[in-house]
Amino acid sequence: MEKYENVSWIPQQELEDPFKKYLNSTEDYLTFVCGPQRSHLFLPVTVVYTLIFVVGVAGNLLVCLVILRHQTMKTPTNYYLFSLAISDLLVLLLGMPLEVYEMWRNYPFLFGPVGCYFKTALFETVCFASILSVTTVSVERYVAILHPFRAKLECTRRRALRVLGIIWVFSVLFSLPNTSLHGIKLHYFPNGSLVPGSATCAVIKPMWIYNFIIQATSFLFYILPMTVISVLYYLMGLRLKKDQTLEADKITANIQRPYRKSLTKMLFVLVLVFAICWTPFHIERLFFSFVEEWTESLAVVFNLIHVVSGVFFYLSSAVNPIIYNLLSRRFRAAFQSVISPSCKQWHPQHHPQGPPVQRNIFLTECHLMELTEEASPHFPCQLSISSSHLHTAHYTGQTT
User: 7-344 belongs to which CATH class?
Assistant: First the structure.
């Protein structure tokens, strides 16, 4: 997460306190102007972060692996989920260790200007890439639900890869303004001499520019996208509810509806959790940008929000694989095939085919929706007998 000055000390810095002249100890003076070198919440937060790190890295690596290894998982929707997993891995592997180190040793910042730029750019980029990926997958699902024939023609894997390339380039470019405002900030004694070990990675340009960028990006890359996503899922919900009331073509409806609803449900939960986890992060940024005169009470509130937002920010990078495992039988089966590769592969030819009419309907739906969910995945340890004719039809449809 983005590192702020310790605002609990800002009011003291703004005071012309005569006592400042008598702080001759370097350690005391650094504590006076920068706050404690080690956070008093270092131990409990580190324990929570370690748990999130282990679960998040293992889960997101598993998501990437199953999408890369299994051809049936290489769908447009899953490509966007793959992008989310990469974003989460970058945060967990590069961002979290650096933040834990800064909680343990707040200053001096040891990685120089390049390290400061990299840290700021990393967090800004993954923030933008994550919300844009979530927005794009929501738009794709909206098109698939309300305009299925158009989805078949437009929502292809090649198009998904192009869109993801644009998203990441776009995210890097939009991270540059905030990154350019940061740098190494040094502190000085009242007599003008440099305080040893006082280097911190912080905003070094005018704060009004930083505040404007934070407010603009929070609107463009959180408030606006989440509003659009909310409208899209509301419209999808209306459409799915309307479909339940239709009685015509019952065979097609009975085959299509469960798969379409289950995937939409999984993505809806994904978006909901994403919104909950990222709300404290943007509240913290906006809080900091709108406060003009800091008081001790405001500093206490901000520091509390900072801790909460940090936990939820990293939690969002670990929770997605858990959602996939709980709500997606296809992902669950794929995870099992990677974790337990010794299980025997299921061969669909062992199951009898169903009536040609049902088979053709199901094939049409599979190709039309390019489902990533519930369409009877073909991984080891996955077997179903009650609807074997549908399983066989699906397998044939994806291999032709």
Answer: mainly alpha
